[in-house]
Structure formats: C-alpha cells, structure tokens
Amino acid sequence: MDDKNPDPDPRTTPGLEPGGSVPPGETPPAEGSTPDAGPEETHNPTTGWAKAPVFLIGVLVLVALVYFVARIWLQ
C-alpha cells in the first residue's frame, strides 16, 4: 500500500489562489440541472391517495385505544 496522500497538493494545483480559493473565470459556466434533461411530467396524482390510508390508520388506533381502555376499566 502506498503511503502517499492521494489528494493534490494545493501549492502545485493550477487555478488556485493562495488560501485555496478559485479566481474568477476558472470555473465553468453554469449549466442546466438534471430535471431539465427529461420531458415535463404532467401526470402526478399524489394528492388524493393518502386520505384513505390515514383514515384507516386512525380507525385502527381508535379501536386499539378503546380495547385497552375497556380492558383496564373492566378489570
């Protein structure tokens, strides 16, 4: 195994100013992001499906609560 540090030496790296900052003009121009690469998605039905699962979970929690309260009360 090599004991050398794999990172470049900042003293010999071109395009760095003292202290490690990058001078203006050394960075590439801004480019489009990944979401701009594909077609626009127009069908996204995620707003209405969550009501039923939340309601069912609430009913199950309520049934469990009633069960345990009745079990404690009737002992």
Automatic annotation (TrEMBL):
InterPro entries of this UniProt entry?
A: DUF6480 (IPR045512)
Record-given protein name: Uncharacterized protein
Query: Which keywords label this protein?
Result: Membrane, Transmembrane, Transmembrane helix
Q: Which organism is it from?
A: Streptomyces buecherae
Transmembrane segment boundaries: 54-74
Task: Note the superkingdom of the native organism.
Answer: Bacteria
Chain spans, region Disordered = 1-49
Show the ranges annotated as biased composition (Basic and acidic residues).
Answer: 1-10
